Amino acid sequence: MENGNNYKILREQIDNDIEKVDAALTMLSTKFNKEDLFVERIENELVIHLNQVDMKYLESVSCEFQNEIVTRIYEKINAIRSYTLKGGKRQFVDYNAERKVIGRKDKESNRSRFYYVEGNDFVNKNNEFPSEYRDRVICADSLAVLKKLPDNCVDIIVTSPPYNFGLSYDEHDDTSFWDDYYKMLYAIFDECVRVLKYGGRIVVNVQPLYSDYIPTHHIISNYFINKKLIWKAEIIWEKNNYNCKYCSWGSWKSPASPYMKYTWEFLEVFCKGDLKKNGDKDKIDINDEEFKSWVVAKWSIAPERKMKEYGHPAMFPESLVERVLKLFSYEGDVVLDPFNGAGTTTVVAYKFNRHYLGIDISDAYCKTAEDRIHRSVKNSVLFKG
Fold first, then answer.
1. What CA–CA distance (Å, rounded) separates 371 from 73?
2. What gap in Å lies between CA 224 and CA 230, rounded to an integer?
3. pLDDT at 384 (0 to 100)
4. Which of 158, 161, 223, 372 could cysteine-pair with 347, CB 3.0–4.6 Å?
5. pTM, whole model, 2 decimals?
6. How many CB atoms lie within 10 A of CB 358?
């Protein structure tokens, strides 16, 4: 299958009587507009030039003439599953092309692009990340550690804060009053915004709490917007975790107050100061197929299956962090996770040639995070050896 000028090109080998084939093609040329569909024979090959066609009409033509060639052409076209419908015809060419906006740049300027960040006081001068914190997992209060870092020194922050759902994080309380929870979170995020480089990205994995009607993803997004960061994306992480259907229902079989539950979580992505992050093009490690697939902002990735092994109740999988790092950072960048937990962010940063700093208050989780990195180092050495 190929693309020609305004046509999708299909090819079909034939071994029929050439005179009968040519007669069928002549008949087809009287039935269809050449701009929509025409078929030619080049030696023993049919070349179908396809733009758009009324499939019911093509089927009726096939039935009317009971011609093997016409039937084969109908079946060949009918097997194509990528098209759109317009005016009763299937459109096969440029049906998914973006509509072009004339004068896009001028219109963006007139609208005031990301107007909500106007008046920010971010400084467009980045600093070196301190060597004493590079490639480390630190067991401590994140707020205390972050305060020791200079402004504008971290390339990307990837984190998933405690959900405040009542989960057991190594015996640490995860059921605070919401005011207290957000005060804690915002204090740490304030430092994250400060240490993030100009042009750096922060990616926060969050999930709304349906039973308390707390739209965490919106609340956190509003925080970053109020801090004058630029909204880059909201990615749906589809976990296909249908077990949630059987947990709780709210008002059973009643419109009184049914729960709406989610098989997905969100990744909220924000930039500091500038949407563009400059970097060395030789340090880009995302390939063509990954890029084309991952810029579609719905990622179907199974949940982490080793949570029991790592003793952590709410981990994201390594493949999720891999996508984030390849899509939004360069090799050699500094990756920060202020809620590092069992260390997924830091181990993936190591595997994909980024520097890292992971902070968590749990001794057990920090040990797990370091063990995972050490195992990766060992496996890397064995592989290279």
1. 61
2. 8
3. 39
4. 372
5. 0.70
6. 30
